[in-house]
């Protein structure tokens, strides 16, 4: 941390996790796929710059200097069918780190499926990719220093915000990872030991717009309803005038 404000108590690097710190790459997710055969266990791949970072649903992800960009590679995740639920695990770890840094958990919220909001704007995004022959990469981008211009996001999407812009905190990507890695490992231990149930409850306790009307945009269909729940498979549960809808993938608009 380059200021005392927002300093997090030192947390040790988690046992069993590796770290590759790279300079400029196309995408840390590309590096995850390329380097999988040489990785012996869970490994964070961080990069100072990404020239072709990607976001969800084929969108580009702006990665200005000073922002956090990393992919956590899990070479052999347990229960591959439920591996994607780790997007909720990663979101909780991000929430914890940002709550401690800012001292303002009430200003943070989690947006289904896996965005982190600060003061109602998008601060961080998560993109999961499966790796062949077997593995999972959890790509995480956090606007620590700069937010992309609002015209770089799709119409109707939440405005991007940065940690520095909203709070004045100057946190380097290196220091951010030092706190994120143990936070992730702690939630991962919960997930491995007890399954999705504790993750789901913790996520719901931090969810944006629960009990309120939201719109889910699916290919060819917009569904508006009241945000009721996230089910045991991580699906969004909406109650609509036509009954309950469970949504596995889509974009949410408030
Ligand atoms: O669309 C989203 O909200 C997900 C954004 C994910 C961005 C991160 S930055 C690190 C990793 N590498 C990428 O190319 N994308 C993810």
TrEMBL record:
<dbReference type="GO" id="GO:0005524">
    <property type="term" value="F:ATP binding"/>
</dbReference>
<dbReference type="InterPro" id="IPR004143">
    <property type="entry name" value="BPL_LPL_catalytic"/>
</dbReference>
<dbReference type="InterPro" id="IPR003142">
    <property type="entry name" value="BPL_C"/>
</dbReference>
<dbReference type="Pfam" id="PF02237">
    <property type="entry name" value="BPL_C"/>
</dbReference>
<keyword id="KW-0547">Nucleotide-binding</keyword>
<keyword id="KW-0067">ATP-binding</keyword>
<dbReference type="GO" id="GO:0005737">
    <property type="term" value="C:cytoplasm"/>
</dbReference>
<dbReference type="GO" id="GO:0004077">
    <property type="term" value="F:biotin--[biotin carboxyl-carrier protein] ligase activity"/>
</dbReference>
<feature type="domain" description="BPL/LPL catalytic">
    <location>
        <begin position="12"/>
        <end position="192"/>
    </location>
</feature>
<dbReference type="Pfam" id="PF03099">
    <property type="entry name" value="BPL_LplA_LipB"/>
</dbReference>
<protein>
    <recommendedName>
        <fullName>biotin--[biotin carboxyl-carrier protein] ligase</fullName>
        <ecNumber>6.3.4.15</ecNumber>
    </recommendedName>
</protein>
<dbReference type="InterPro" id="IPR045864">
    <property type="entry name" value="aa-tRNA-synth_II/BPL/LPL"/>
</dbReference>
<keyword id="KW-0436">Ligase</keyword>
<dbReference type="InterPro" id="IPR008988">
    <property type="entry name" value="Transcriptional_repressor_C"/>
</dbReference>
<keyword id="KW-0092">Biotin</keyword>
<dbReference type="InterPro" id="IPR004408">
    <property type="entry name" value="Biotin_CoA_COase_ligase"/>
</dbReference>
